[in-house]
Design a protein that fits this description.
Elements (H helix, E strand, L loop, with lengths): L1 H26 L7 H7 L10 E4 L2 H9 L27 E9 L29 E5 L3 E2 L5 E4 L3 E4 L5 H12 L7 E8 L4 E6 L5 E4 L7 H7 L10 E7 L2 E6 L18 E6 L3 E6 L5 E4 L7 H7 L8 E10 L2 H5 L5 E5 L5 H8 L7 E6 L3 H26 L1
Parallel strand pairs: 1-16, 8-12, 13-17
Antiparallel strand pairs: 2-3, 2-4, 2-7, 5-6, 8-9, 10-11, 10-12, 13-14, 15-16, 15-17
Helix pairs in contact: 1-9
């Protein structure tokens, strides 16, 4: 009778302990949801933020080989491409003006005959004076209203004209005042036909444009390039009140994003290191910089120490990716799931490229809360059992 009562008491105690275990497991702190909870969240009709879970399996790997590598942004800077010229004179430009005259000169007085220096004036007819004299003027700066002022000519509106146009203006203005005047106009300094480089560039400042039509990468190279790697540098181009930006490492020479520069463009280089984050059953929650042109999912997992053997579920390694452009187009956020218990998953992870601000989450094992709670009970009752054993032995 006593044995049956004792058995009932033991059974009742076991059930009570089991109930405590179950209730305790549900209230224990955790580093995040289990793999099953993440997958079921994708089909939860009450969820306000919808997302989809994509399995990284053999079929996904074959599709991965046919698509463009991630991170190659195309067309962001190309949207600012415009037609324009770089040979127009603007306010603030400095011009060197030379006037060439023959015979009686307006600017330099009478000149000696060229024939006199070659054997006497008798060598040429008296009515012809082939001597030519050049009169360089001081460098003139285009005023804010777009004009310059020259002796015997007065003011000329030169803004928006080419140097050749100004030469013809000068020659027409001197017609009848000088004998066969010829003008040569050279742009010495042209702030109006320049671009400006600033930010994390080796040499900031102004760069004049030439008729060679420099492109974006030409200007960056002329300034010494970025202070950090191109992959971690964002180039921002501002033009006419608009701006666009993309990773400098994604701009290919001669591509549509390597736009031809126009006067007044501003090029800013910004240091924005790419990184990814790791959460869940990892040795340490961390944010890790790429520090390389590209990083695969396998490399990213290795950098954070991989799944924790004591608490992780290797079948539920998730990659959370938020693509703003895709979401703006109506596509939901994507969560990729990798099962590291399958050998093929390691090949897929080697070829799956990480993107900036990706988030890796390694789910906890479903048995982890039970193991954690049992460990807590052991810590609570182990001192009591030890004291009881010591008491009996004494």
């Amino acid at each position: 009778m006593q044995s049956s009562s004792s058995l009932r008491l033991r059974m009742s105690g076991a059930v009570s302990i089991l109930a405590v275990l179950v209730s305790g497991c549900t209230t224990l702190p955790s580093s995040g949801p289990t793999g099953r909870q993440v997958v079921s969240g994708a089909t939860d009709p009450a969820a306000e933020l919808k997302f989809q879970v994509v399995e990284l399996d053999g079929a996904a790997f074959k599709k991965l080989l046919t698509v463009q590598p991630a991170g190659r942004a195309v067309g962001q800077l190309a949207s600012l491409a415009r037609e324009g010229r770089v040979d127009r004179i603007a306010p603030g430009d400095a011009l060197q003006v030379n006037v060439y005259e023959v015979g009686m000169t307006l600017f330099g007085g009478s000149t000696q005959s060229a024939g006199a220096g070659l054997g006497g004036a008798s060598a040429l007819p008296d009515t012809i004076d082939p001597s030519v004299r050049s009169q360089p003027m001081n460098v003139v700066t285009v005023a804010g209203d777009g004009t310059i002022r020259l002796p015997y000519i007065g003011r000329l509106m030169v803004a928006g004209s080419t140097p050749y146009d100004v030469q013809r203006m000068i020659e027409q203005a001197l017609h009848g005042k000088s004998q066969s005047p010829q003008a040569l106009v050279t742009v010495v300094n042209s702030p109006g036909n320049s671009v400006y480089l600033l930010g994390d560039v080796t040499r900031t400042g102004r760069m004049p444009l030439t008729a060679a039509r420099e492109r974006l990468l030409d200007a960056v190279a002329t300034a010494g390039g970025s202070k950090v790697s191109n992959a971690d540098t964002v180039v921002r181009l501002s033009r006419g009140g608009e701006s666009a930006e993309m990773r400098l490492g994604d701009v290919r020479p001669g591509s549509s994003d390597d736009v031809a520069l126009l006067p007044g463009d501003r090029i800013e280089l910004i240091n924005e290191p790419r990184s990814f984050s790791a959460f869940g059953a990892t040795p340490k929650v961390s944010q890790v910089a790429f520090e390389a042109p590209s990083v695969s999912l396998a490399e990213a997992l290795a950098r954070v120490g991989g799944p924790n053997d004591l608490q992780a579920d290797p079948r539920s390694v998730f990659l959370f990716r938020y693509d703003a452009a895709a979401i703006a187009a109506g596509e939901p956020p994507v969560i990729y799931r990798l099962n590291l218990m399958k050998p093929e998953s390691y090949i897929i992870a080697q070829n799956f490229p990480m993107r900036d601000k990706d988030l890796i989450y390694i789910a906890n094992s479903a048995s982890n809360p039970v193991s954690k709670f049992v460990g807590i009970l052991n810590q609570l009752f182990a001192p009591l059992l030890t004291a009881r054993v010591l008491t009996r032995n004494n």
